[in-house]
Amino acid sequence: MSTLDSTALDSTTSTSTVRPRRIVGRHQIGVKTAVIALVLVGLLPYLFMLVTSGKTNQQFAEGFWQLQFPFHFENYATAWNQIAPYLFNSIGIALASTVLILPLSSTAGFVLARFRFPGRRLIWSMILVLMMMPGIATLIPLFVMMRDLDLLNTYTVLVIQYVAQGVVLGVILIRNFAEGIPQALFDAARIDGAGGVRMYVSIMLPLSLPVSGTIGLLTVSTVWNDFFWPLLVLSQDRLRTVSVGLQFFQGQNATEVGPLMAGYLLASLPLVVLFTFLSKYFLAGVQGGMTGTN
Hints:
By secondary structure, this protein is mainly α. The protein is about 80% helix and about 0% strand. It is built from 12 helices and no strands. Helix 3 (about 75-115) crosses helix 6 (about 155-180), helix 6 (about 155-180) runs antiparallel to helix 9 and helix 9 runs antiparallel to helix 12 (about 255-290). It is globular, with a radius of gyration of 27 Å. Mean pLDDT is about 80; it is low at about 290-294. It holds the Pfam family BPD_transp_1. This is Carbohydrate ABC transporter membrane protein 2 (CUT1 family).
């Protein structure tokens, strides 16, 4: 092949490889633009809440979206005094629920994934059915059962419901994760004389930390955002969670927009901070809990 022919071939090859790269680059620009637009739209309510939290009613009437000065930081002090007890209630209930959900779901998922016993498939099918059951379908029976047990207006009525709900999802995630762990690890441990408890403590627990963190984050998010169940079973103000407390705070401050928005902002900060610093572990746990991702 002559030098001229080889040069033409190289030129054709380079042109054919550059064009797809340009097309892919244009597609990436379009996707990035769409993602940025969606993020901005999603952040608009939070931005509105931040701007409004420092306004008086007069400033709010003069400019709906504009940032106006002076910025009234005293609105945050007013909001904190109102919602602080509700925040601590939610934190306590979230911690208690997470502490109970993690060991229950971890041990149950490990046993279902690594041991063969009669009824194993039936138990797994029942767990999947519970996962598909809409929460509203069990609301009235659950309320009647808690009322008959005399658990209304207690923290226990919330923790029991969150644990029962969270264990189902936790078992599914842990079981799928445990099935992805190579069997050779457990075989080697068994040869060394390890029993089921030793394999769970030495192999399963260290490897399942990301998915356990995911379950913990999902539990905290569920407790924090749940509104209807606490509103139904709690009538005493001192027991209310932050979502219900904000609703009553709104009723008390219907004409004070600034403290109201400051309260919403303070109530959302713990979840924002939690997901900001632990989002990497959250995504790793979700991917690790799905079948075929290990």
